[in-house]
Recover the amino acids of this structure.
């Protein structure tokens, strides 16, 4: 039996580490996973993963959890296709994990809702120690599209929002990688009071102000100096801009017609610069407004 899973990367509106409430916007940078389930196999080997470089802890643990959750008995083989860079703030683990869960469930004959997929990925992230909060916001945004505000302590969607048509994310992706979130969560929780402004703005629907306030906080905790870059992106026509996730990626949300102008405002030389359309939600899901 065979199943295909598809999810997408996302950029941060609010980082969930300080208060447990996060917000994210999906971008159209996909992760695709094909799962093949051999129910006739009598072996009980761990899931096989191709290419070998994609056999990461989140892929292996998500596949095993999905097999248990959806009764996918037999030998599971996965083929992972993703170019989302890992540990750069673009939610690669959530995107790939969601695609693994969806593909495995479909191979077993099930069609779980995006909410159910995102909750399982969040459970896996926490239980495996890969994520301090489970990143339910990242997984849900990548699964359903559009923007979401979630309580990652209860894996509940607080709000869905559509930032509007014809928007893109202009990205600057430096080569360095961020540390795992469990390694820095205590630093963020010491700043919980300062995170309230971003959380309140996001839950009120003001995602632009939320993104700015969040970026100021994350930059101060992680040591990024993106203030001048944010100002340059906004002057060039961005609606909002800031660090995504734990960085080092810098993301600006822009009208598609202004994307080239904002690209030229990004630092020259080091890092990857690219434009990716936002991925808008095709339909509503449970738990949103």
């Amino acid at each position: 039996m065979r199943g295909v899973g598809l999810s997408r990367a996302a950029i941060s509106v609010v980082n969930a580490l300080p208060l447990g409430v996060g917000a994210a916007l999906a971008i159209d940078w996909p992760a695709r996973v094909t799962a093949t389930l051999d129910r006739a196999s009598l072996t009980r080997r761990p899931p096989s993963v191709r290419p070998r470089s994609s056999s990461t802890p989140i892929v292996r643990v998500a596949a095993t959890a999905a097999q248990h959750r959806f009764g996918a008995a037999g030998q599971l083989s996965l083929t992972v296709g993703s170019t989302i860079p890992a540990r750069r703030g673009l939610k690669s683990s959530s995107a790939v994990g969601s695609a693994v869960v969806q593909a495995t469930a479909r191979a077993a004959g099930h069609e779980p809702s995006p909410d159910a997929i995102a909750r399982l990925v969040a459970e896996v992230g926490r239980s495996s120690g890969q994520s301090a909060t489970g990143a339910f916001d990242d997984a849900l945004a990548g699964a359903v599209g559009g923007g979401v505000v979630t309580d990652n302590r209860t894996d509940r969607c607080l709000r869905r929002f559509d930032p509007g048509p014809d928007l893109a994310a202009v990205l600057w992706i430096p080569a360095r990688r961020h540390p795992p979130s469990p390694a820095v969560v205590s630093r963020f929780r010491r700043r919980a009071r300062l995170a309230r402004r971003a959380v309140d703005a996001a839950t009120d629907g003001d995602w632009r102000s939320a993104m700015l306030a969040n970026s100021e906080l994350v930059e101060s905790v992680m040591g990024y100096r993106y203030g001048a870059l944010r100002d340059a992106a906004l002057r060039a026509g961005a609606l909002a801009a800031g660090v995504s996730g734990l960085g080092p990626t810098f993301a600006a949300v822009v009208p598609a017609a202004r994307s080239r102008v904002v690209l030229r405002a990004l630092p020259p030389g080091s890092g990857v610069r690219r434009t990716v359309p936002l991925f808008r939600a095709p339909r509503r899901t449970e738990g949103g407004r």
About this structure: The chain has two domains: 2-161, 167-277. The beta strands are 2-14, 21-38, 48-50, 75-82, 147-151, 156-161, 167-173, 240-243, 250-255, 272-277. Residues 284-289 have pLDDT under 50 and may be disordered.
